[in-house]
Amino acid sequence: PQHVVLYPMVSKSLRNIAAGKDPLEGQRHCCGIAQLHEHHSLGYADLDELQKNPQPLIFDIELLKVEEPGSYQQDPWAMTDEEKLQAVPLIHKEGNELYRQGKVPEAASKYYDAIACLKNLQMKEQPGSPDWIELDQKITPLLLNYCQCKLQCQEYYEVLDHCSSILNKYEDNVKAYFKRGKAHAAVWNVAEAQADFAKVLALDPSLRPVVAKELRSLEARLREKDKEDKVRFKGIFSQ
């Protein structure tokens, strides 16, 4: 048991990896014993129990497949810092190509992987420092591409969250306002959509034709919804 006292932390990292998350998510820079005191719960009841009462462990390992070195793309968590920086432009390019091919969910996954690489590096920098800001500026266009994919996948609330996080830092980001406006319109946040589209026009008047098209589409949907509501409510009150 004394040799596996830190295994719950290792197991939590492995479970993060299996879920596509950063293995160090939620941890701070300190030794393993300090981690034990820092986290009152690991988020898993079985690991919490094992942490309180260490037991001898037996592992069954199943070999799934063998791949030659260089024949596969490493997951972001397995890369060194240098490998992450080198991989980001390549993953970005792969995402763009998939998007052009109409493979939107696959493109979103690529953008997510590129963002994960940069986020992992950013975690090691002091927030607001020049290096942190430089990484954040690399993350932003990738996040906007990711939001474009999510718009097409009709995952509007995720778009709202990410675009708002961008605008909290970069108040003049036209693309973030435009994508957030489209997401607001899709979930019937009419006033918010109109406000975002107005901000787009204020920042870039050349986009007036595009914004006008979005507003016309929103107004048409509102008229159609109004008609449907009248028919629906008429049926209710006539009963």
UniProtKB/TrEMBL annotation:
The keyword DNA-binding does not apply. It holds the Pfam family PPIase_AIP. Signal peptide: none annotated. GO terms for molecular function: peptidyl-prolyl cis-trans isomerase activity. SUPFAM superfamilies: TPR-like (SSF48452). Residues 1-65 form the AIP/AIPL N-terminal FKBP-type PPIase domain. It is found in: Cytoplasm. GO terms for cellular component: cytoplasm. Its main location: cytoplasm. Gene3D superfamilies: 3.10.50.40, Tetratricopeptide repeat domain (1.25.40.10). Keywords: Cytoplasm, Phosphoprotein, Repeat, TPR repeat. Interacts with RET in the pituitary gland; this interaction prevents the formation of the AIP-survivin complex. May play a positive role in AHR-mediated (aromatic hydrocarbon receptor) signaling, possibly by influencing its receptivity for ligand and/or its nuclear targeting. This is AH receptor-interacting protein.
